[in-house]
Design goal:
- By secondary structure, the protein is mainly beta.
- 4% of the residues lie in helices and 45% in strands.
- Strand 12 and strand 13 (176-180) form a beta hairpin.
- The protein has two domains: 9-303, Glycosyl hydrolase domain, family 43 (Tachylectin-2, Chain A, 5 Propeller), CATH 2.115.10; 333-460, Sandwich (Jelly Rolls), CATH 2.60.120.
- Strands 5, 6, 7, 8, 9 and 10 form a six-stranded antiparallel β-sheet that branches.
- It has helices at 8-17, 22-25, 198-201, and strands at residues 37-46, 49-57, 68-74, 80-88, 95-97, 103-107, 110-119, 125-132, 141-142, 149-150, 157-160, 166-170, 176-180, 192-193, 214-223, 226-233, 239-245, 253-259, 271-275, 278-285, 297-303, 333-334, 337-338, 340-342, 345-348, 357-360, 367-376, 383-390, 395-401, 408-414, 419-429, 435-444, 453-460.
- It binds beta-L-arabinofuranose (FUB).
- Residues 39-40, 55, 64, 100-101, 116, 154-155, 216-217, 267, 269 line the site of beta-L-arabinofuranose (FUB).
- The site of beta-L-arabinofuranose has 13 residues, from strand 1 and strand 15.
- Belongs to the glycosyl hydrolase 43 family.
- Residues 1-28 form the signal peptide.
- Residues 331-460 form the CBM6 domain.
- Keywords: Carbohydrate metabolism, Glycosidase, Hydrolase, Signal.
- This is Glycosyl hydrolase.
């Protein structure tokens, strides 16, 4: 998929960002992921980054025939690094379809990934759990070799309360919960069905078969002393609503609509998290070119809680949240750290050995834009180094300020390296890059075939 970016409104904001302070005017871009269709986002703050785990809608999809889950992360909310497919249906040997909406939670240094999948034996939907021992981006392995729970319902959300008790909620069309054991992969108490009433989950007006506005996609968290249950409501199309309660098991009180329906897809799927002192609402829509109900895309908005703890109405935007921190060009950055791009694709860097990705499918005129790069005072960087590989003749990486037609501050030549995974570091001089600016890597070369692959880059003073 090679959708064209950026949109006109974003061009204007991008221009402003070169003139005005980063914190005020440099914005991200929604949808935040533009190289693949993503759905069902689940944010997790780990270390100094926000990770978003997503489902993956196939190009041209006409159903929810989903096969893998991906991870993306950002330190600044504007530039997002793709970590690739961190888990696939193959992880669960007992499952045969429907890699649907999951959530990763961290406990005692382990990461647990709860997902709904179809049980091959029963052909019903079940919840599986996989675990990763050291890295938030996996590898994730099936924790128990079978369903954690199975009642034909979907969309697990897991929350660890202050006293250490973990709860898993899930459901469509009902809402269920169970208290998990400390090992996070079993439970001892009863599975409980939440009583859905108009008072607890809002009145239903579109479907007499449903008791309340609750539809699916629950997201449980706690802020101050209040527990929040956010969920997709009404169907279809869905909006996003929420309820609150005094404990992780309720009783729940309906609090209203957060994100009304906007066009382009049937479903929505919320996640809420705080990161670097701000609150973020993560969801999906159909806003990418070619997007729709089965080709969805993850987007993010920042918001501020009302003084009473209620959540304000949040609208979808094309601009996304403000960039919260500039990007350091003097440390090595993965080339798949992207604010927007044209053309290029990501793939696993098979020679790198650590599961990371590289950029491929680079053609003449393609580009990657990275936002808010802190070059610093005069004279700024004097050289640029990139790790590249190509089995053909190579090409050039133009370093352009602000946009793909902005001033060139350096040009690196990429030679034939001997193979698409035979990596070489190439360097070139840089001058004229100072302050905090957006930077575009614009790729040029002759011929109509792919030019080269691109793994990482770094500036030096
Ligand atoms: O992506 C498949 C399903 O669509 C999810 O499990 C639901 O939340 C809805 O977004």
């Amino acid at each position: 998929m090679k959708p064209s970016y950026p949109w006109p409104a974003t061009l204007a904001l991008s221009y402003l960002s070169t003139l005005l302070p980063l914190a005020d005017f440099t914005r991200a871009l929604n949808p935040i992921i533009q190289k693949i269709y993503t759905a069902d986002p689940a944010p997790l703050v780990h270390g100094d980054r926000m990770y978003i785990f997503t489902g993956h809608d196939e190009d041209n999809s006409t159903t929810y025939d989903m096969h893998d889950w991906h991870a993306f992360s950002s330190a600044d909310m504007a530039n997002w690094r793709h970590h690739g497919a961190v888990m696939t249906l193959d992880t669960f040997t007992w499952a045969d379809a429907n890699a649907w909406a999951g959530q990763v939670v961290e406990r005692n240094g382990l990461f647990y990934y709860y997902v709904p999948v179809r049980n091959a034996a029963t052909q019903g939907m079940a919840i599986g759990v996989a675990v990763s021992e050291g890295s938030v981006t996996g590898p994730y392995v099936d924790a128990i070799g079978g369903p954690l729970v199975e009642n034909g319902q979907i969309d697990p959300t897991v929350f660890v309360d202050d006293d250490g008790q973990a709860y898993m909620y899930w459901g469509n069309p009902d809402l269920w919960y169970v208290a998990l054991s400390d090992d996070m992969m079993s439970y001892s108490g009863n599975i409980t069905q939440v009583e859905l009433t108009a008072e607890s989950f809002g009145p239903r007006y579109d479907n007499p078969d449903r008791a309340t506005a609750f539809e699916e996609a629950p997201w449980l968290y706690k802020r101050d002393d209040l527990y929040y249950m956010v969920y997709a409501g009404i169907c279809c199309p869905e909006d996003v609503r929420y309820s609150t309660g005094p404990t992780a098991t309720g009783p729940w009180t309906y609090r209203g609509v957060i994100m009304p329906y906007e066009g382009g897809r049937f479903t929505n799927h919320p996640g809420i998290v705080d990161f670097m002192g701000r609150s973020y609402f993560v969801y999906h829509n159909g806003a990418l070119p070619g997007g729709g109900g089965f080709t969805r895309s993850v987007a993010v908005e920042s918001f501020v809680y009302n003084a009473d703890g209620s959540i304000p109405a949040i609208a979808m935007t094309a601009e996304g949240p403000a960039q919260v921190e500039s990007l350091d060009p003097y440390v090595r950055q993965q080339a798949e750290t992207i604010a927007s791009s044209e053309g290029i694709e990501t793939e696993e860097c098979s020679a790198c050995g650590d599961g990371r990705l590289n950029i491929w499918s680079i053609n003449n005129g393609d580009y990657i834009k990275v936002k808010g790069m802190a070059f610093g005072d005069e004279p700024g960087p004097t050289s640029f180094t990139a790790s590249v590989a190509t089995d053909l003749d190579g090409g050039r990486i133009e370093l352009r300020l602000d946009s793909e037609t902005g001033p060139v501050v350096g040009t690196c030549t990429v030679p034939h390296t001997g193979g698409w995974q035979v990596w070489t570091a190439v360097s070139c001089p840089v001058s004229g890059a100072t302050g905090t600016r957006d930077l575009v890597f614009r790729f040029t070369g002759e011929g109509s075939l792919d030019l080269f692959n691109f793994d990482w880059w770094q500036f030096a003073r």
